[in-house]
Specification:
This protein is of the alpha/beta class. Helix content is 36%, strand content 15%. It has nine helices and 14 strands.
């Protein structure tokens, strides 16, 4: 086997670069959860106050308009998006933007599960966005604000008209707390706790504008809704959902963890500090990509690059020349080497995405850990390239 470069001497202090669940906030210890309301009913006064606190702190941190509603809902971001789709769609035609796995999933639900007759799917391959100029705002619009599996984000909200007739429903799970969300351009936003603030899984957040509430109260879908999707009763919004009265039983341990992440975010300077941390991680990787000949961003334009789910592709000629299954094996081997060395866990590309790497750069990831990781990426690439050359020579 060919000789490869020596292993780097410096390792990331925290090797957790997974895109979900994501790294815990710096300095996290289990003792931070010692005040959790364990063994208590979530309907009790103190536990309910904890749930309401998650809502209040989240609203303030994100700068959400006062007239918006925010609630804790079941089943993570997926549950929040499905609640919005099943409860709100059908009143008018819908345009769905599908440029990565989750957006494609929402399109499938709309076309094949809800079976909406007037649904347009505006598609783009991994690394690109659909033509945003084709979106018709007389219709409802469903999109992922940040493509967690493609590393492509929506470049701001200027393209969304202020005079829209339909609702804009944004899956913002890997965008919230790391990017500015243009609330005046949106009507629904969803996210989960396990992304940018590194919380534990199972719970989602559903934010509704007054226009979305008006739709809920003035429109009844043609299909029945299961209990965990019901946001209205007797034609009126169930206000308790947006005050901490959750539809199903939440984990009070996860609630305490969410509060810990929110308090940390407030302590370091709020949303501007969170955004700055994510953007610094992206900038560092961008600088490395610029000087590294074997790798490039999956996102084709710089303004599309996500600072959270940072997706990379291997562009070396030898790699591009091998079959797709061979590329997938090489990328998996590269990620496996990093994991075996204990320097980066779970950074292989998403299973439906092109072979490559996906590095979480959200606010809980220290830039110093990104800096320590980059030489290891070069080392692992050199190793798999040497293996490939040896295998080719043996053929």
């Amino acid at each position: 086997m060919a000789i490869i470069a020596a292993r780097p001497e410096v390792r990331p202090v925290n090797p957790h670069f997974s895109s979900g669940p994501c790294a815990k906030r710096p300095g996290f210890r289990l003792e931070a959860l010692s005040g959790a309301m364990l063994g208590r009913s979530h309907r009790g006064r103190e536990p309910k106050a904890r749930l309401a606190e998650v809502i209040t702190r989240s609203r303030a941190l994100l700068g959400m308009p006062a007239e918006w509603k925010l609630g804790i809902v079941p089943a993570s971001d997926t549950g929040a998006v499905e609640m919005a789709l099943w409860s709100l769609l059908g009143a008018r035609g819908v345009d769905v933007l599908a440029f990565e796995s989750f957006g494609a999933g929402w399109a499938t639900d709309i076309v094949k599960q809800l079976r909406l007759a007037d649904a347009r799917v505006l598609e783009a391959p991994y690394g690109r966005l659909p033509d945003l100029g084709e979106v018709d705002f007389a219709r409802d619009v469903v999109l992922t604000w940040n493509g967690t599996t493609s590393g492509v984000r929506i470049p701001g909200g200027a393209w969304i008209t202020d005079r829209r007739e339909g609702l804009v429903i944004a899956d913002a799970t890997s965008a919230a707390f790391a990017m500015e969300l243009p609330w005046e351009k949106l009507d629904v936003a969803t996210w989960s706790w396990q992304k940018v603030l590194g919380g534990e899984a199972a719970h989602g957040m559903l934010a509704l504008s007054p226009r979305a509430v008006s739709r809920l109260e003035g429109y009844s879908s043609a299909w029945p809704l299961p209990k965990i999707f019901r946001l209205t009763k007797g034609g009126k919004l169930i206000e308790g959902i947006f005050k901490g009265e959750t539809i199903n039983t939440p984990s009070m341990l996860a609630v305490e963890d969410a509060l810990d992440g929110l308090r940390w975010a407030e302590h370091i300077g709020g949303l501007p500090a969170l955004i700055a941390r994510a953007e610094a991680n992206l900038a560092l990787i961008a600088s490395w990509v610029e000087r590294t000949p074997w790798v490039d961003f999956l996102a084709e334009r710089a303004e599309w690059r996500s600072p959270t789910s940072i997706c990379l592709r291997i562009i070396a000629p030898w790699f591009q020349a091998i079959p797709a299954e061979g590329q997938a094996a090489v990328a998996k081997r590269l990620a496996g080497l990093l994991e075996s060395e204990g320097v980066a866990y779970d950074i292989g590309a998403y299973r439906d995405a092109p072979p490559g790497l996906r590095i979480w750069g959200g606010a809980t990831v220290e830039t110093t850990d990104i800096a320590a990781l980059l030489p290891w990426l070069d080392w692992a690439y050199a190793a798999v390239a040497a293996e490939a050359r040896t295998a080719h020579a043996a053929e």
